[in-house]
Design a protein that fits this description.
The structure holds two protein chains of two kinds.
Chain A: E1 2-7, H1 11-22, E2 27-31, E3 43-44, E4 54-55, H2 56-69, E5 73-76, E6 79-85, E7 88-93, E8 97-105, H3 119-122, E9 127-128, H4 131-134, E10 143-146, H5 150-159, E11 166-169, E12 183-184, E13 188-193, E14 197-202, E15 206-208, E16 211-214, H6 221-227, E17 232-233, E18 236-237, E19 250-252, H7 263-281
Chain B: E1 4-5, H1 11-16, E2 22-27, H2 32-35, H3 37-48, E3 53-58, H4 63-68, E4 76-81, E5 84-90, H5 95-101
Parallel strand pairs in B: 1-3, 2-3
Antiparallel strand pairs in B: 2-4, 4-5
Classes of the chains: A alpha/beta, B alpha/beta.
């Protein structure tokens, strides 16, 4: 059992890791990429101590290297699901599984929607972001599962318990995992229907469906969180003054909780969240200033 | 105040014919996120006292009503006023947001 898994190795996640390490808590930090700053062409010049402006991805990579140099376990992997198991959590990644007492969501924020006609209109009316939440309503129905990788496969296993009639839509991407159900490779043009979703349309075909489950790429932390029953408002994970969500042991920091989308704020969040996580793990001990 | 349990049997009398706004959570025992709504509803019920009725309806047991309302995702929370759907939302919400849905 790990004390804490930190998801995301940007400024919030790494800062939390560094401060936890100083309290002799050993976090495992899992990140999938260098986050929002990875593809950011402008250099960062508004952060303290930067004599010369630096590329965002270089700054983030420095943070990762800093944590590694301090002996913190930093892993590149993608989390595909989080579950509450009794009083701890199970974190499933594309490569393995972790059991942990606490989790810090520090993934940054990307809003995973599909910018297609009808997506917003049929969200909750046939389009679902969560097989485990909504699969039940589609028992023995004709459903589409949109995705092409490990996350899709994870959702497929669950949906198979509900219905036999599943078609995978890769939405123009190559299929990365072998499946034993029909696959449509064409790009989706639109979602259409009446008051409920009835069809998925590609350039030259229209497929009748009663439900469409979205499992593209890797789920965002807002999706993990909502699947766990965390309060989400305006696409922000809601936390209390101790950076804890309404799920005990599940913390969040950085862009994902809203506020200023700035490195300075993410670092501050990470530091505070580390203190709060320490107190959660050791309710009787007080923090040692280090 | 307590959190009510609505059923096909009492839905009309308790919800549709209620004198005060009624907030109904559509839930199921197998739905993980729904378990997190329960404490929020209890808290809300204590706050709103007799200004509104707070309750939940099990979509497995009472599927006729869930089907009629086109519930396809849970938790769905619907506020009924004067027998009609006044507000509807999907997912776990804070107590403050639920109060806004009730226009309290």
């Amino acid at each position: 059992m790990i004390d804490v898994v930190i998801i995301g190795y940007g400024p919030a996640g790494i800062s939390a890791g560094i401060y936890l390490k100083r309290q002799d808590v050993h976090p495992t930090i899992i990140g999938k990429d260098l986050g929002a700053l990875e593809g950011y062409d402008d250099k960062v010049e508004n952060y303290y101590g930067l004599v010369e402006p630096i590329y965002g991805k270089d700054l983030i990579q420095n943070g990762v290297d800093q944590a590694k140099n301090l002996g913190i376990k930093v892993i590149t992997d993608s989390v595909i699901s989080i579950k509450s198991v009794e009083s701890h959590f199970e974190v499933v990644t594309t490569q393995t599984k972790y059991e942990t007492k606490a989790i810090l969501l520090a993934t940054g924020k990307t809003r995973r929607t599909m910018k297609r006609t009808g997506f917003t209109q049929y969200r909750g009316k046939g389009i679902s972001m969560c097989a485990t939440c909504d699969g039940f309503f589609y028992r023995r129905k004709k459903v589409a599962l949109i995705g092409c990788g490990a996350y899709m496969l994870h959702e497929l296993e669950y949906l198979k318990k509900m219905t036999k009639d599943i078609t995978i839509f890769t939405d123009g991407h190559p299929l990365k995992e072998a499946v034993d159900v029909p696959v449509v490779y064409d790009k989706i043009q639109k979602f259409s229907g009446t008051d409920k979703l009835t069809h998925i349309e590609t350039t030259d075909q229209s497929y009748e469906v009663q439900g469409a489950f979205i499992a593209i790429g890797i789920p965002s932390s807002v999706e993990f969180a909502s699947q766990m029953g965390v309060i989400i408002e305006k696409n922000n994970v809601i936390v209390d003054e101790n950076y804890m969500t309404n799920v005990p042991g599940l913390f969040a920091a950085g862009d994902v909780i809203g506020g200023k989308l700035q490195i300075a704020k993410a670092v501050y969040d990470g530091m505070n969240a580390a203190d709060a996580i320490y107190s959660y793990l050791h309710p009787k001990k007080s923090l040692v200033a280090k | 105040m307590m959190v009510n349990t609505f059923t096909t049997g009492n839905f009309e009398a308790e919800v549709l014919k209620s004198d005060v706004p009624v907030l109904v959570e559509f839930w199921a025992t197998w739905c993980g996120p729904c378990q997190r709504v329960a404490p929020i509803l209890e808290d809300l019920a204590n706050d709103v006292k007799d200004l509104a009725k707070i309750g939940k309806l099990d979509v497995d047991e009472e599927y006729e009503i869930a089907d009629e309302l086109g519930i396809m995702s849970i938790p769905t929370i619907i506020v009924f006023k004067d027998g009609k759907v006044h507000q509807s939302t999907i997912g776990v919400q804070s107590k403050e947001t639920l109060k806004k849905l009730l226009s309290l």
